[in-house]
């Protein structure tokens, strides 16, 4: 998780989520009557909103840097964590109780880059779900028309830090490995405006096709699932804006 630990200080600025994901997950969480777990809760963009709304939510993440940011934000907002958040791996985490809902937002499941890791994560999540419980996650639709056009050239980007008002300058490019079904993103952060050193950060994810994931859910014992083409539960057709999955134990 080097990308997240070294990039924790600017992660929220460059990674603002997928449009519509926060209200969707909040709405689904409010439907649940018991405990909720967010896997890969990161710096708390979604998790802290769950707490703010009085939801009985727990969180885990593998990056100490991101969890540090989450705890700092929780303190500023007056939200007590009470041991609800911990450092843990989505493949091997353990709790002495089960959850009505487990969520893996913002494409975090794609860090499971091998079939074996994907299976371990799903089996572990299912093990921690109550009967009839739900697993909800999302990841991008791997459109070959887009993948085939990636030019692998560095592109300039800028974003303003809302706290300091200063501009962060960075360069980035993406690359798809079609043979191994992986995508990588590379960033060069030139200036945060707060005296931080320049950084080169690299992120790798797998990508998963819909039928492939259906087979994985069945293999891991999920009874049924729903697939949507976006956070408004629109039907998945040829190309959704996002693959949104709801799987039932």
Task: Describe the fold and architecture.
- With 249 residues, the protein is α/β, with parallel strands linked by helices.
- The chain has two domains: 2-142 and 208-248, 3-Layer(aba) Sandwich (Rossmann fold), CATH 3.40.50.150; 144-206.
- The chain is built from eight helices and eleven strands.
- The chain has a seven-stranded mixed beta sheet with strand order 3-2-1-4-5-11-10. Strands 6-7-8-9 form a four-stranded antiparallel beta sheet.
- Helix 6 (115-127) links the parallel strand 4 (99-104) and strand 5.
- The longest helix is centred in the first third of the chain and has 13 residues, at 64-76.
- The protein is globular.
- The mean pLDDT is 90.
Summed up, what is this model?
The chain has 249 residues and is an alpha/beta fold.
* CATH domain class name of the largest domain: Alpha Beta
What is the percentage of strand-forming residues? 25-35%
CATH topology of the largest domain: Rossmann fold
Q: CA-to-CA gap between the ends? A: 29 Å
Rounded to an integer, what's the Rg over CA atoms?
A: 18 Å
Number of strands: 11
Helix content: 25-40%
> Could you name the ranges where pLDDT drops below 50 across 5 or more consecutive residues?
none
Strand order of the largest sheet: 3-2-1-4-5-11-10
C-alpha geometry: globular
Biggest sheet descriptor: 7 strands, mixed
CATH architecture of the largest domain: 3-Layer(aba) Sandwich
Series of H and E elements: HHHEHEHEEHEHEEEEHEE
């Amino acid at each position: 998780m080097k990308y997240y630990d070294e990039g924790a200080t600017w992660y929220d600025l460059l990674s603002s989520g997928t449009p519509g994901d926060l209200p969707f997950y909040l709405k689904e969480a409010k439907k649940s009557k018991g405990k909720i777990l967010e896997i890969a809760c990161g710096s708390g963009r979604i998790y802290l909103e769950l707490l703010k709304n009085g939801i009985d939510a727990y969180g885990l993440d593998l990056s100490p840097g991101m969890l540090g940011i989450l705890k700092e934000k929780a303190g500023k907002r007056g939200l007590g964590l009470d041991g609800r958040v911990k450092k843990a791996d989505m493949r091997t985490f353990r709790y002495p109780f089960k959850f009505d809902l487990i969520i893996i937002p913002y494409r975090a499941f794609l860090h499971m880059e091998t079939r074996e890791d994907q299976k371990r994560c799903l089996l572990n999540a299912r093990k921690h779900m109550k009967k009839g419980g739900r697993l909800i996650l999302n990841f991008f639709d791997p459109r070959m028309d887009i993948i085939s056009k990636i030019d692998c050239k560095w592109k300039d980007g800028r974003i303003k830090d809302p706290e300091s008002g200063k501009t962060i300058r960075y360069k980035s490019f993406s690359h798809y490995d079609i043979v191994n079904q992986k995508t990588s993103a590379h960033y060069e952060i030139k200036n945060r405006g707060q005296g931080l050193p320049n950084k080169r950060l690299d992120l790798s994810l797998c990508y998963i096709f819909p039928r492939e994931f259906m087979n994985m859910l069945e293999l891991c014992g999920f009874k049924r699932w729903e697939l949507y083409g976006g956070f408004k539960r629109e039907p998945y057709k040829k190309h959704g804006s996002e693959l949104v999955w709801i799987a039932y134990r």
